[in-house]
Amino acid sequence: MSRIGKLPIEVPNGTTVSVEGQTIKAKGSKGELSLVLSELITPKLENNELTVSPREDLVQAANDRIEAEKARGRRLPTFAEALDSKARTQWGTARARAANMVEGVSNGYSKTLELVGVGYRAQMQGTDLKLALGFSHDVIFKAPDGIKLEAPKPTEIIVSGADKQSVGQVAAELREFRPPEPYKGKGIRYQGEYVRRKEGKKK
């Protein structure tokens, strides 16, 4: 079995989860998200635990294959080996995405960026982020739906939201405005990111 896929997802207090066919909906203090799973995967909610598993006919086919190999006296494949390859890859992915969704609406996700460089500054203009990055003009970045931007310090940006993928995408877009350069390390970097430095030309 998939080591990740078979693990149940506990629904925290204050978070509601519903399952309608292939669609999982989650609502919590940080927002509301939905996820549509592949038709190869079946979601199930029971006793405040969310589980995902391969479709019943695919499970039966895998068990039949194991029994057939046993009857022939051959090496028995594991359940994961006997399972349809597409269902096997979708199983763990579906569980990870569902777990991220439940965690996101319950506690949220955040990424912190640091601005390094003389004159590099960030400040909020309403819900928009204004960046001074050494260009001839300031950069104005509008927060997408479901994303909150904060600049608690002129050299720090916090991106937060319920959707893990969206938080990571917005943080990457902000970093791309001025990626860290390798000589002096100036630019926008993730908090704790190691920037490999190069030695400048010697005269």
From TrEMBL:
The keyword Lipoprotein does not apply. The keyword Coiled coil does not apply. Keywords: Ribonucleoprotein, Ribosomal protein. Residues 116-190 form the Large ribosomal subunit protein uL6 alpha-beta domain. One of its GO terms (molecular function) is structural constituent of ribosome. GO terms for cellular component: cytosolic large ribosomal subunit. Pfam families: Ribosomal_L6. GO terms for biological process: cytoplasmic translation. PANTHER family: 60S/50S RIBOSOMAL PROTEIN L6/L9, LARGE RIBOSOMAL SUBUNIT PROTEIN UL6M. Belongs to the universal ribosomal protein uL6 family. This is LSU ribosomal protein L6p (L9e).
